């Protein structure tokens, strides 16, 4: 990617509000490279990763439409860490290639790499700074279960598989504690946007 393009890694646990934050940066004209979109792109029907997943996990993880049955696959991999490692070996290198392509094509003063697994993978190595969207765990559970329609137990399993809140806070350069209203969030994003533009110019 061009040397002058600063990369801000945006991350946070499930239900923290990463999308609300990235949407606000996007409204300011900042390019967003979303690792979740990259992860969906690499397993589209006809892509090599989907064929590998079907061969390893069986036809039960493929819907009649030919698309990936994400709910079934999530159920399998969160019940068995070795299966999750298998899935990651099939998908992470391809997701990384997709992300690098997106970062290289970004045309804004800085670019945001939004990824829930920024610290769990080597994606953080692509970033100049890390912005953490942090939220107390009880709010995480409440938001994620009501949004995704899955059980609190499943949300807890996902949280357990992610880097701990304490470690994320230690590794972040900037933190938004997203437990207030949207007007406050707008102000926080504006403050950080101004700071990042100054860093780009220094």
TrEMBL record:
<keyword id="KW-0963">Cytoplasm</keyword>
<comment type="pathway">
    <text>Cofactor biosynthesis; coenzyme A biosynthesis; CoA from (R)-pantothenate: step 5/5.</text>
</comment>
<feature type="binding site">
    <location>
        <begin position="15"/>
        <end position="20"/>
    </location>
    <ligand>
        <name>ATP</name>
    </ligand>
</feature>
<comment type="function">
    <text>Catalyzes the phosphorylation of the 3'-hydroxyl group of dephosphocoenzyme A to form coenzyme A.</text>
</comment>
<comment type="similarity">
    <text>Belongs to the CoaE family.</text>
</comment>
<dbReference type="GO" id="GO:0005524">
    <property type="term" value="F:ATP binding"/>
</dbReference>
<dbReference type="InterPro" id="IPR001977">
    <property type="entry name" value="Depp_CoAkinase"/>
</dbReference>
<dbReference type="InterPro" id="IPR027417">
    <property type="entry name" value="P-loop_NTPase"/>
</dbReference>
<keyword id="KW-0067">ATP-binding</keyword>
<keyword id="KW-0418">Kinase</keyword>
<dbReference type="GO" id="GO:0015937">
    <property type="term" value="P:coenzyme A biosynthetic process"/>
</dbReference>
<dbReference type="GO" id="GO:0005737">
    <property type="term" value="C:cytoplasm"/>
</dbReference>
<keyword id="KW-0547">Nucleotide-binding</keyword>
<keyword id="KW-0808">Transferase</keyword>
<dbReference type="GO" id="GO:0004140">
    <property type="term" value="F:dephospho-CoA kinase activity"/>
</dbReference>
<protein>
    <recommendedName>
        <fullName>Dephospho-CoA kinase</fullName>
        <ecNumber>2.7.1.24</ecNumber>
    </recommendedName>
</protein>
<keyword id="KW-0173">Coenzyme A biosynthesis</keyword>
<dbReference type="Pfam" id="PF01121">
    <property type="entry name" value="CoaE"/>
</dbReference>
